[in-house]
Amino acid sequence: MAQKIYLNGKLVPREDARISVFDHGLLYGDGVFEGIRVYNGRVFRLSQHLDRLYDSARAIALKIPLTKKEMEEAVIQTLRANSLKNGYIRLVVTRGEGDLGLDPRNCGKPAVFIIADKIELYPAEWYKKGLELVIVATKRNIPEAIDPGIKSLNYLNNILAKIEASLQNMPEAVMLNKEGYVAECTGDNIFIVEENVLVTPPFYVGILAGITRQAVMELAREKLGLLVREEAFTRLHLYNADECFLTGTAAEVIPVVKIDGRKIAEGKPGKITTRLIKEFRDLTRKEGTKI
Ligand code: PMP
After folding, report:
1. What are phi and psi of 247, to 5 degrees?
2. Whose CA is closest to atom 4 on ligand 1?
3. How far is the CA of 101 from the centre of ligand 1 (A)?
4. Active site residue 151
5. Fewer C-beta within 10 Å: the chain N or C terminus?
6. Measured distance CA(40)–CA(74) in Å, rounded
């Protein structure tokens, strides 16, 4: 079946889903987006993703031309049109078509498009063996410039960090903030376990408020009975952690076993990490908005 893309209120074949070269999303990265998963015909935490999308849009003074309810329906409509029960949704709102100047006031209506696609899962082996990370020189954007809490189309900060990691044949990069505190990875949040306490960087360090991060903090408290702290920590804590893992919509929960050539504990996925992987999988299979 041919793929259908939602574009400004219509479902169009993939070949016809086109955006102007004058769209400021393309010219300036002026826009916002979301990445959302659908599991067994249920959209995982759709309302939280939409809240984040609308908050990001508000932060850049972009008025989305649909209500949240209409957007929710558009997502579901796109999934139905593609008969997709398991996959990944990319929801994008751009500033729209303008002229070559920066001024958003010269743009017409924001463009809204939704792509529902199969997800390219990370190799199963990564979840069993764990990832190796490097801390890169590129710092996470400072909140006073572009707040990392805004999920904008301007991902060059993360891409630069990703390039640094790739040049070292590493699958992911850890980004520090300007003060040297651990922020997050290029597309995932980071957690460590220190003496049975789960620790993750707080928002003020400069991170995206991950939906998976939130779900994992809830699971750790409610299902594992763990203490969870949002606390700033340096790379020393990463090296000396008992466990480390990443969270994200695409990655779900993925163990980290080595950072900058140092093994995390014994260099194997930790016990708490392994339990959280399972709890998160279970949660995604039972929760969510039905298509
Ligand atoms: N940090 C960054 C920079 C991201 O791009 C993402 C993925 N959207 C995340 C963290 C994880 O967020 P979520 O769990 O909502 O996918």
Report:
1. -130, 145
2. 187
3. 30
4. yes
5. N
6. 19
Q: Which residue has the tokens 């994992």?
A: 216
In short, whether 200's Cβ falls inside 6 Å of ligand 1 is no
Q: 63, 69, 139, 151: which one is catalytic?
A: 151
Residue with tokens 């959302």: 36
Q: Is the CB of 201 under 6 A from ligand 1?
A: no
**Residue (of 267, 192, 177) closest to 226 by Cα position:** 192
pLDDT of residue 28: 98
For 18, 42, 83, 224, the CA distances from 88, given in Å and listed in that order, are 20, 11, 13, 28
- Examine the pLDDT at 291 and tell me if it is beyond 90: no
- Residue 197 vs residues 151, 163, 212, 271, 273: alpha-carbon distances, Å: 29, 32, 18, 13, 12
Are 97 and 23 contacting, i.e. CB atoms less than 8 angstroms apart? yes
Q: Partners of 229 in the beta sheet?
A: 199
pTM exceeds 0.90 for this model: yes
Residue with CA nearest ligand 1 atom 9: 188
Ligand 1 near 78 CB (within 6 A): no
